Amino acid sequence: MAISPHGFLGQLIHRRAVARWLRAAQGASVAELTSLGQQQQMARQLQRPLQALTEVAETRLALPRSGSTTFSRPGGTDWSWRPKPWRIRVPEKGLSPALPKGKLSNEMQVFHDCPLSEITLRQIRNTRDIDLSPFAVALDVLGFQGSYLSLVIEVPPSSCDGLRKRHLVRLAATISRERPVTIHARLNIKHGPNTEQILLKLPDEEEAVVEFDLAYGQLNEKRAERMWVDLMIGDPAMNRVVFRDLNLSRYPRAEI
C-alpha cells in the first residue's frame, strides 16, 4: 500500500527523515570517517532526484495556472471573460489539418474556404514570464488559396445579460506574428431576427486592444441574446500567428 506524502503518516516519515539528515549534517565534523563516507554517498543519491524535482517544480509553478482569469480590466467592468482555449487545456488540443468549421473546444471554430490541407490550429502552453494566460492558440498556414480565414469565438450568453447601448465591449489580445499580417475583429450581437455587427482593425502591436462602442448601432437592448467575435486574418499564407492571450470586458461609457 502506497503511503501518501500528504497524509499524516507521510508527513511523519518526512519530518523524521529531515531530522535525521539535520543531525548528520550537524555531526559531520566529528563523525567516524567510514560512517561519514556512507552518509556522503547516500546524500549524493538523494541530491540528484531532489534537484531534478526542484527544477521542474520551479518551472511549472512559475507558469500561469490553468484556469487563470487574471487580466487587466477597465474601471467599472461589469462582465469579463477569457475563452477556454486560453484558460484551460481543451481535449482537442489541435486541428491538423484545420478543416472548415473545425472546432477547438465549443467556444472556438475555424472558418475558411481554402482547398489545401495546409492550415493547423493548436493550443500550446504559454511559457514566457510576461504571459498572464495559461495557454495560447497557434495558427500555422503554409499554402493558402482561399478568399477568407477567420477564427470564430462563441461568447457566453451572460455577456448579453443587462447589455445596454451605453456599454463598451473591449477586446484585448496579445499576438505574435511571424510576419506582418492584418487582423480585423468583428463583434456580432444577435437581437431578435437581426444581428448588430461592428468591425474594427486590430493594431499591429503585440498588445492589441479595441473597443466596440454600442452607441452607434441599432441594438435592441431588450432582445440581445447571443454574442460572438470573428477574428479575420488577411493574406495568411506562409505565416504563423500565435494568439498569446485574448479576453473580453464590458463596461459603461463614462457619462459626459
Tally of separate domains: 2
Largest β sheet strand count, sense and barrel closure: 7 strands, antiparallel
Number of helices: 3
Question: What string, H for helix and E for strand, traces the elements in order?
Answer: HHEHEEEEEEEEEEEE
Report on the structure:
The structure is a single chain. With 256 residues, this protein is α+β, with helices and mostly antiparallel strands. It folds into two domains: 8-62, no CATH class; 79-252, Jelly Rolls. 21% of the residues lie in helices and 36% in strands. The termini are far apart.
Descriptive labels:
about 35% strand, about 20% helix, about 260 residues, six-stranded antiparallel β-sheet, Jelly Rolls, 13 strands, 3 helices, elongated, alpha+beta, 2 domains
